[in-house]
From TrEMBL:
InterPro entries: ClpS (IPR022935), ClpS_core (IPR003769), Ribosomal_bL12_C/ClpS-like (IPR014719)
Recorded family membership: Belongs to the ClpS family.
HAMAP family per UniProt: ClpS
Gene3D superfamilies: 3.30.1390.10
Organism: Methylobacterium isbiliense
Subunit organization: Binds to the N-terminal domain of the chaperone ClpA.
Gene Ontology biological process: proteolysis
GO-annotated molecular function: peptidase activity
Function description: Involved in the modulation of the specificity of the ClpAP-mediated ATP-dependent protein degradation.
Residues of the Adaptor protein ClpS core domain: 43-121
Listed name of the protein: ATP-dependent Clp protease adapter protein ClpS
Keywords for the protein's UniProt record, in alphabetical order: Hydrolase, Protease
Amino acid sequence: MAQVRTQDIVSATPVVAANPRAPGNGDGRSGTAVITRTKPRTKRPNLYRVLLLNDDYTPMEFVVHVVERFFNKSREDATRIMLHVHQNGVGECGVFTYEVAETKVTQVMDFARKHQHPLQCVMEKK
Ligand code: TYC
């Protein structure tokens, strides 16, 4: 039996309730025990790419601004991403958990609509 380290106990799910009818021994405790799972079970979140789609009308400078503003990219990285989308039709701005990706898409779409540009932003499960 491997040593139990408290930092490995990631779930308090009882997996065994030992000997529930054990007689009391006068110590005031019930005579039951709960064994918790000790195997580290890390579960990775599902990840989503946030993509920009090319169109013929949104100004390049607007797209660069969007990538800087909502994806925290430098002007140089934002320009590279914009040019990649312009030349390839689609490009990745970042990879996020579901709720963060959804928020980015909504922010970009709202901002584009407010400025009357047809820019499209979508998310795609990795
Ligand atoms: N194709 C656009 C233009 O020539 C620029 C552009 C780039 C638009 C990226 C959208 O996601 C986009 N003005």
